[in-house]
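We store chain and fold; thus.
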Amino acid sequence: MTGAQEIVAVDVGGTHARFAIATIDAGGLIALSEPATLKTQDHAGFQAAWDAYREMMGGYLPDAVAIAVAALVNSEVIHFTNNPWTFHPPLIAQELGCKSHVIVNDFEAVAHAVARSSNDHFVHLAGPEIDLPGSGTISVIGPGTGLGVAQFYRDGQGRNGGGYRVHSTEGGHGAFAPLDAVEDAILTRLRNRFPRVSNERVISGPAIVDIYAALAAMEGHAIRDLDDVTIWETGLSGEESLAAAAVDRFCLALGSVAGDIALSHGACGVVITGGLGYRIRDTLLRSDFAARFTAKGRFSDHMATLPVKILTHSQPGLVGAALAYAQSIASAF
């Protein structure tokens, strides 16, 4: 890339579709316009959301597009994991009127953003208070509408710019493994509805409803019909003790799963990302996340050597989609 280029960066999750104009300079650095956030439930599909954003921008958009999607991207029809949208990659150029495009998994995009973020974009969560290593594998984990998981490998040839390779995964769909009687009760409740209980059934924003209900049943309380937003708000504020206990339990489960993922990736560091992870950062810091993260039997001492960070970047999906586009263009030459 010899000069600055404008592209449309898009980050489509289960609840929201975010759009921005990204400017990529000759060095591959990204500048974003003010993002527009559209609710997926308010639009019949991706094309409708795209048209709404184009109208917001006065009817003109750049003819290059980078799209991060919460779905598998290796097929001719993409089905989103946590919303009913579908779209057809072979038709993207025709439908959007673009000359070039890149489609990546949403957490592949987030991992690009993590790999290129400076140290001041991280808050320390657990393990030694050191920077993320300049070589080796970093696990990227983000609870939101679902549970996103990716990894990237640094080759030691430079933290910013080149020197890393991203791998998307569907690690959030690994099977949930309870560690005590409370988590046994949560699993039992979920098994009444799902033949297989994945990690994201317990570790995601909406999952707090089932955690809350399982705790209420264990304590003999009537199960109140509360939505996830209310439980998170009253739990984080401490306004209701049962909701606060549900949030604490969420933090424990996240610590366990993050540790399992780090082990399976052979990671030398871990980053928790996403709006929910950042929103609950103070609670995570006070919780037993770190104890659960390291509680891996014969590997507990090893786990205690891994730095765990929280990413504070406000739009990692959009920035990461643009970075993925820039990398793909650079590799074509």
